[in-house]
Each structure stands twice: as structure tokens, then as C-alpha cells.
Specification:
Layout: H1 13-19, E1 26-29, E2 32-35, E3 42-45, H2 52-59, E4 64-68, E5 78-90, E6 104-105, H3 109-119, E7 134-139, E8 142-152, E9 156-164, H4 173-187, E10 191-197, H5 201-210, E11 213-225
Amino acid sequence: MYDKIQENKLDNPVWNSLSETHQNFSVNYEGIKFYNPEYCPFGGFETPQNISSHIDLYSTLVDNFFIVGNKPPISNNVEIKKELVCLQMIIEDKVKIELTEDIIAIANENDLFQLINLVQPGYFKEKTNLLGDYFGIYKNEQLVAVTGERMKMNDFTEVSAIVTHPNYVGQGYAKQLISHAVNNIFHQNKIPYLHVLENNIGAIKLYQKLGFKTRRKMSFWNIAKQ
């Protein structure tokens, strides 16, 4: 089991991911770190002092992005479009369910990009798949469900892109893919966690059934140029 002291790193997941496992994907400014926008439009800061100008600089690289955690100070050059309040959930034991579907590591990047942006447009960029492993279920040679990994630290990996094609919901594909992804992360000697919108009751119930527990709320501040 992981050191509970290390769990505090989940309070600032972007900053700590870009300081540890994902440091090669980082765009660094003093006091704030962002993912290279080709991979993920997320940023996180350690201290709020003197970072608004750096937020402005990042906004020249991408029109629309998120700062994860505390509300950031901003200049008049950008605006906060919305606050997405999520539950940060964590699981401490492997999921023990029978997998009845053929789950494969996804090799076709276009299949992955098209499906995720059909269901969750805007979050998954052309190189997001390089941040971690992605697993999927195909039916009739079509990718119909996927789950993968996004932010990574030394001790924690975020489960992300939990997506099922609208024509294939209700088949239990997400349950099996999440279980497979979670156990794969445990196999890497890391602890899985995820973020889910606090009003996504159906997804939260599924995660709870699999063993996830709510750790805290986490805000995703959507920022864009004026």
C-alpha cells in the first residue's frame, strides 16, 4: 500500500504530474506548470503570486484550457468561462470482476481520437494518447468503448477517457474497461484515481460499485482569451 503522506500530492495533480512522471510534457513558468497543449490543455500552480502573466503567455498557445485546483488569479486578457466541480475519487484495491469482453490495447490513434471527441469533445488532443495506456472494445471492427490513463505521478495514475459510443451504452463495457485499466495501474505499483463531474450521478455510482471512494472535490477552471 502507498504512503498516505504521498496522497497529498493529489491535491495538486497537474503540478505534481508535471514535476514527476510527466515532466517531459511540461511547459514551465515560474510558479505554474502546464501540459504542452498538444497533449493536454491542463495547468496547475503551486503559489498564486505573479502567475497571471504566465497564464496570459499560455493562452497564446491554445485558445481554451483548464487550470486544476484553486481558483487562479487572472489578468484582463483572459476570462474564466466556467468552473467544473468534480469529485476526485481513489481506489485502493484491485477490482475483482470477470471480464467477458475482448479488451485490447488501442493501436489505431484515429479510432481513439474520433470516439472520445464524439462523446467528450475538447479534452482529448492529438497527442493525448501518448500520456498513458488506452484500452478499448471493438464491435464489428468499430471502436465502441474506451478507458485510458492521463495524469501520472510517481505513485498515482489518473483513469480517464471513460467513453462509450452512444449506440452501445448499457452493455457494461465501461465497467469492464475501468476494471482492466485500474488493475493495469496497480500492476505498475501505482494507485488509480479519477475525476468525475459532481452531478454525473450514474458514473459516480458505477465507480463506487467498483470500489472508488470520494477523496475531495476538485475544480477545473475553464479559461479562454478575451
